[in-house]
């Protein structure tokens, strides 16, 4: 069955709502997504800009430190005070300038006091090992030491703490009072330097105060600034727990490889300690140009992700509200179109089911004038269609009547012609066989008469010798008489109207005498008889004997490899209540298919080729029908055939 299409209502709704339900959400989604994508670009650019500010401040601090050290070395105070007590002057100057160390170096960078310290020459970022820091100041070494904290996504590291110090280091050549030249070296330790990192954070993110209270209270401008020594945070404004700074935590392995190993920059989302940040990383190089750390700025991604969800929710909610408000109004307006269309649809459905009286305007639907005109036009077309249908039905009925009459006449004529043809053919064949049979019977009777006369003479001659051959002569005489009876039966078959049915016969006696007649054909075949009939039948003994012999010979020929013939004889009544005898002959032979079974009683039909005449079963059926009997056959290929002969008992009409 074909699939039903969508209704007119559904199609119009789809056409009308398609822009609102598909195109508008698609447009809103694309616009919103593009806006959010642009926002991500702005955030990434902002973080990169914040990192540039932090780099500029770090460069300014390096230059400022170098300038202060150079100015001190060139000052008159340096020349005046280094003669009497240089150590005291340097200590006082260190505190005034806010430096963590300040000392004099020889030309190779070795400190004049203490002489076991060696520092790099030049101005910039420098790494100082723990022994160097301890030689400068034990508190400085302790401040530089930062325990390492296990951090998700970081690269494996077997150290327990970071003991190196990252310093802003500056050297300036000076002339000592004795005329010797030296280097004035000073620096600021950046490990655990909260003032330094908070100052950068204030410059980069001015909306957050130093206590990060607004970070805890909410808002999007609570950015983070971090200074890394290698991949370890040595100064940061990041407070994962809200109070303690995340000192000793480490950058992710992916960031470390990109920035420190490969020398690139990172401007993307990155996992920072415990959450995702929109991040920017740049490498920090020391005085020699080696990458020794990173400078980082970033803002948390979570608030913007939440804002994105809120934006989607607001946009989707606004769309749904607009849809819910406009859809009822649209449906109200569309109902004026749907009703007439549905009424016309129902009318056409009724017409399709055979109701030619169906009309749309029997109950005028409300709607625009255009729809009413369309409905009236449909009704006029249906009126014309109904009239044409009546005319066609009348013509069709008349034509059918004429065709049926002509067909019946032709059928009757064809049946009569076929019956006449079959009867003519059969009559012609039977007439021919009748003429041949009469001639054969005449030719056979003359020799039989001579043989029988001579047999009587032989009997009389042999009777004088003791009658030793009397039995054999009696058997010969009986067979001669049987031949005469068979010839007589042939004449009866050819001219049945000239003979009556003859005396009644005991079928049990005929059945018991069957074995000697077919004994010479029963090589490898067994005959089993079950004779229990008590009635006599209305048939000549020779006719019944011929019927049984024909059926038995057919059964023998159907069992070329041997088998068994079962012959039973019972008193049995017909379906109409007449008394009679049923003789059943069943074999275990090859059987017959349906096509062969339907033709076995046709004259001259045989399955034995030139060895058979095709008249045996036809003659048997003719003899049985002549005496108001019945011949039935049942056969299954490969399982054998059963013939049932029912003959009416004597005294039955």
Write up what this structure looks like:
The protein has 653 residues and is an alpha+beta fold. The chain has three domains: 27-300, no CATH class; 406-499; 500-648, 2-Layer Sandwich (Heat Shock Protein 90). 52% of the residues lie in helices and 18% in strands. It has 16 helices and 16 strands. The strands form four sheets. Strands 8-7-11-10-9 form a five-stranded antiparallel sheet. It has a five-stranded mixed sheet with strand order 12-13-14-16-15. A four-stranded antiparallel sheet has the order 1-6-5-2. A hairpin with a 2-residue loop joins strand 7 (224-229) and strand 8 (232-236). Helix 1 packs antiparallel against helix 9 and helix 10 runs antiparallel to helix 11. It is elongated and about 195 Å long. It starts with 7 loop residues before the first helix and ends in a 5-residue tail after the last strand. The relative contact order is 0.06.
């Amino acid at each position: 069955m074909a699939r039903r299409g969508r209704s007119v209502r559904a199609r119009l709704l789809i056409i009308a709502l398609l822009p609102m339900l598909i195109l508008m959400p698609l447009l809103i989604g694309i616009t919103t997504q593009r806006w959010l994508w642009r926002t991500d670009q702005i955030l990434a650019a902002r973080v990169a800009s914040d990192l540039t500010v932090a780099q500029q401040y770090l460069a300014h601090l390096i230059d400022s430190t170098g300038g202060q050290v150079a100015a001190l070395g060139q000052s008159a105070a340096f020349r005046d005070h280094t003669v009497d007590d240089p150590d005291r002057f340097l200590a006082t100057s260190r505190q005034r300038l806010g430096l963590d160390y300040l000392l004099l170096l020889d030309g190779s960078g070795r400190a004049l006091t203490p002489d076991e310290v060696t520092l790099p020459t030049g101005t910039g970022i420098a790494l100082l090992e723990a022994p160097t820091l301890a030689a400068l100041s034990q508190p400085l070494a302790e401040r530089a030491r930062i325990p390492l904290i296990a951090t998700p996504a970081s690269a494996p590291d077997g150290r327990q703490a970071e003991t190196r110090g990252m310093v802003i280091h500056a050297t300036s050549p000076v002339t000592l009072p004795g005329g010797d030249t030296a280097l004035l070296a000073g620096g600021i330790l950046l490990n655990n330097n909260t003032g330094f990192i908070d100052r950068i954070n204030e410059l980069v993110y001015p909306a957050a105060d130093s206590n990060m209270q607004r970070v805890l209270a909410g808002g999007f401008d609570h950015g983070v600034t971090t200074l890394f020594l290698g991949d370890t945070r040595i100064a940061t404004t990041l407070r994962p727990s809200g109070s303690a700074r995340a000192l000793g935590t480490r950058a992710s392995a992916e960031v470390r490889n990109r920035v420190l190993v490969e020398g690139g920059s990172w401007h993307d989302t990155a996992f920072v300690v415990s959450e995702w940040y929109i991040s920017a990383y740049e490498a920090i190089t020391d005085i020699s140009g080696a990458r020794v750390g990173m400078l980082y700025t970033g803002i948390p991604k979570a608030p913007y992700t939440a804002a994105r969800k809120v934006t989607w929710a607001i946009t989707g909610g606004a769309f749904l509200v607009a849809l819910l408000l406009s859809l009822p109004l649209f449906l109200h307006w569309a109902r004026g179109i749907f009703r007439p269309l549905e009424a016309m649809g129902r009318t056409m459905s009724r017409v399709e089911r055979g109701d030619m009286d169906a009309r749309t305007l029997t109950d005028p639907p409300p709607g625009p004038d255009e729809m009413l005109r369309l409905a009236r036009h449909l009704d006029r077309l249906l009126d014309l269609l109904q009239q044409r249908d009546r005319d066609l039905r009348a013509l069709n009925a008349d034509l059918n009547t004429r065709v049926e009459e002509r067909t019946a006449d032709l059928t009757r004529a064809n049946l009569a012609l076929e019956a006449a043809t079959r009867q003519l053919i059969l009559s012609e064949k039977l007439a021919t066989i009748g003429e041949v049979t009469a001639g054969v019977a005449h030719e056979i009777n003359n020799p039989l008469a001579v043989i029988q006369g001579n047999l009587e003479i032989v009997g009389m001659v042999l009777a004088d010798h003791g009658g030793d051959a009397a039995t054999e002569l009696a058997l010969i005489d009986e067979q001669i008489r049987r031949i005469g009876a068979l010839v007589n039966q042939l004449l009866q078959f050819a001219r049945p109207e000239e003979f009556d049915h003859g005396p009644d016969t005991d079928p049990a006696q005929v059945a018991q005498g069957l074995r000697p007649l077919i004994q010479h054909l029963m090589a490898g075949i067994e005959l089993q008889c079950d004779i229990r009939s008590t009635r006599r039948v209305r048939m000549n003994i020779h006719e019944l004997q011929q019927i049984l012999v024909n059926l038995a010979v057919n059964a023998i020929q159907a069992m070329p490899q041997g088998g068994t013939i079962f012959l039973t004889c019972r008193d049995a009544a017909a379906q109409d209540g007449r008394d009679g005898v049923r003789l059943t002959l069943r074999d275990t032979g090859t059987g017959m298919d349906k096509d062969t079974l339907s033709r076995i009683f046709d004259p001259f039909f045989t399955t034995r080729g030139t060895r058979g005449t095709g008249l045996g079963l036809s003659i048997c059926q003719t003899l049985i029908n002549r005496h108001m009997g019945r011949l039935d056959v049942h056969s299954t290929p490969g399982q054998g055939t059963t013939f049932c002969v029912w003959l009416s008992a004597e005294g039955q009409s």
